[in-house]
Amino acid sequence: MKLTFKISIYILLFLIAFCPFSEARQLNQEPEVSQIFRNIAEINDPASIQIILEDFFITEDVEQVDRIEIIDVSDIGFGSNDILVVYPSRNVYMLDQPSPQLAETMRGWSIQEQRRDAENTLSADYFYPAHADTLERWEVEESEIVLVQNSLISDILESINRNYQDMPISLRFERGEVDEGFTFQMWNYNEDAFAFSPRPARSDSIAVNDFLYVLYSDSTVVADTTMYDVIFINKTIKETIHIPPFEEQQIIQTQTLPGSGAFSNEFQNTDALIRRE
User: Fold this and answer.
1) How far is CA 2 from CA 6, 7, 14, 16, 51, in A?
2) Whole-number Å distance between alpha carbons of 182 and 159
3) Confidence of residue 94 (pLDDT cuts 50, 70, 90)
4) Which residue has the higher pLDDT, 120 or 213?
5) How far apart are alpha carbons 62 and 53 in whole angstroms?
6) How far apart are CA 173 and CA 182, in angstroms?
7) Residue 17 and residue 9 in contact, taking contact as beta carbons nearer than 8 Å
8) Which of 182, 214, 222, 229 is placed for a possible disulfide with 175 were both Cys, Cβ 3.0 to 4.6 Å?
9) What is d(CA 186, CA 201) in angstroms, rounded to the nearest whole number?
10) 209 or 42: whose pLDDT is higher?
11) Which residues pair with 94 in a beta bridge?
């Protein structure tokens, strides 16, 4: 009895001595935290919620349940080994094998997605649908959603290659309704590899090889400016000075000189002649 008691004490002391070191080693091991994307089926219909809870023998009050979420943890389709979350209580249940009828219904649950996987060596220009810029819309074979998807991939790759110089990196972008906003996340990255680079000057489209078509044709060129005729106006100013006529009167004064009697008749005749003229 004493031997058994002593052995128990030794075991207890051993556990006390080594357990803190063991816990310290576990706490010092920092895991690499990342994210995974799994399909989630959300069910709000009370009748459907009741059928699922009863099928998996989950004892929840259906009247107290607003909705349930079933997470496809194994990523092999909804069914067994999935997780069911009840709201608003947030109780979590691990699902067993459903009944054949429910299993067939759950296998039909799927998400509508547009996905494309490619190699890291492909450039941004590889994905951009440049032919959609030069061809008529009826000549483009791809659907609208494929063209948009490739355009988004091209824009994202161009921005990442310009601002992040390393591998790998993970992105997430989700946008809800107008009043909900959007969510953007980055993880699994090397913080030292970020280097902001301004967006380069560009035309109205992405930098791709455009086509130039040269056409020869006669055309009428309409000037982009309005030309006016020049009119020169000449003005002549003539000044006229009017001088009224006047009569000239000639007066000859005579003086009798000594001994001039002999010529008195001649001077008189001359004076008379001048006056007559």
Assistant:
1) 6, 9, 18, 21, 60
2) 19
3) very high
4) 120
5) 8
6) 7
7) no
8) 182
9) 26
10) 42
11) 83
Averaged confidence pLDDT in the chain = 79
**What is the separation of C-alpha 158 from the centre of its chain, rounded to a whole number of angstroms?**
13
What tokens were used for 145? 């959603």
- The owner of tokens 């299993």 is 103
Question: d(Cα 276, Cα 273) in Å, to the nearest integer?
Answer: 5
Q: How many alpha carbons fall within 13 Å on the CB side of residue 17? A: 6
Structure confidence at residue 225 (pLDDT): 64
Residue with tokens 């997470």, as numbered in its chain: 71
Residues 6+ apart with CB under 8 A from 131: 140
Place of tokens 């979420």: 69
Helix (H, G, I), strand (E, B), or coil: what is residue 92? strand
Joined together, the tokens standing for residue 125 give 């220009």
Contacts of 110 (CB under 8 A, 6+ apart): 39
Q: What letter represents residue 158's amino acid?
A: E
Q: Which residue has the tokens 């690499």?
A: 32
Q: Contact, 98 vs 77, CB < 8 A?
A: no
Contact 93, 115 (CB under 8 A): no
The answer to whether 66 and 105 have CB atoms below 8 angstroms apart is: no
| Token couple for 207 | 């930098």
Percent of the chain with pLDDT over 90: 48
Name the residue with tokens 């349940």: 65
Task: Give dist(CA 48, CA 70) in Å, integer.
Answer: 13
Report pLDDT digits (tens) over 159-198. Answer: 999 999 999 999 999 999 999 999 999 999 999 999 999 9
For 176, what's the count of Cα atoms within 13 Å in the CB-facing half-sphere?
A: 5
56 touches 96 (CB < 8 A): yes
